[in-house]
Specification:
By secondary structure, the chain is α+β, with helices and mostly antiparallel strands. The chain contains eleven helices and 14 strands. The strands form three sheets. A seven-stranded mixed beta sheet has the order 1-2-3-4-5-6-7, sandwiched between helices. The two termini are 27 Å apart.
Amino acid sequence: MGAATQRATLKRVLEAIGRETGLAARVVQWEPKLHRGALVRPDALIEIGGPNTGQRYAVEIKNIHRFEVLHQLRALWPHGTRPPLFIAAPYITTQAAEQCRKMDLYFADTVGNIYLKGRGLHVFVTGKRSDDALGAAKKGKLANPAGLKVVFALLCRPGLLNAPYRQIAAAAQVALGAIGPIIKELETRKFVAPEGRHGRARRFLDPQRLVQEWAALYPAVLRPKLNVRRFRAEANWTEGLELKPYHAFWGGEVGANRLLHYLKPETATIYAPETPKQLVADHRLRADATGDVEVLDVFWNVNQIPTVQDVVPPILVYADLTATTEGRNLEAARMIYEQFIEPALRNPA
């Protein structure tokens, strides 16, 4: 969603709030810089209510097509953060509205679905339909598996953005012909901008938002294609286990624990080029469709995308965690974003 579309969406959302509740709603500031503890800069700061009773909210303007987006936003904007988070969307389905209410995420859309709380204020309106809001959202190349692989490679190695297409394709393990259209879409959607003489160089405009979109799409679009295999293991089998000898990497909860030394893993996620048969044999992993160990195919070039010891890149750990509804995982995801992802995006190598 480009800047102009975002502003138009928020304008319609604020009009819908006024129409449904009779409350005045206005934009106080676009892209405000709030307190230092905030993980991301919101799209806007709004005020809802009268001159002396108005309450302020930090706004994220989003298309909400998957619940993963909601979990991700809550991880980035935890309960108790001030001002509270408010989601402005073209359309919120009844199911998404109910999920927002359960998570205590405030929202409003352009057709008048609203969940809002504040001093002396509690509004929950749902069920209003939009005939074309969801149908109008068309998936581009960034939302297919090849696009997600390329974006992952670029976010993990920002220097690739100005590398030859052949090098990007090799790092992302996609066909060379896929690169040009994906770069073009990144530019069209204002994630990337040309610069320098003749516009031949490129730079990221909004890598933080691109991370959020990637993490929201990954569980539904790319992850199911990674040949997921499940096993069951003995208790505490991951403690102290290094995967390098098996040419594999920890993701998910174990990966988070290796990075943070904070989360006690209940499930194990492993990324490997193929089923690590020696690992299965050494640790007596038993095939089990409902097991607590999952093995997925590596989808990037392990020689060109940096990892931290035997852990997948932090962006992938983050996506694994935000795809769950576990509060402890979402807190760990927030910490990984704050300690590993955001600093790397702010100071790309």
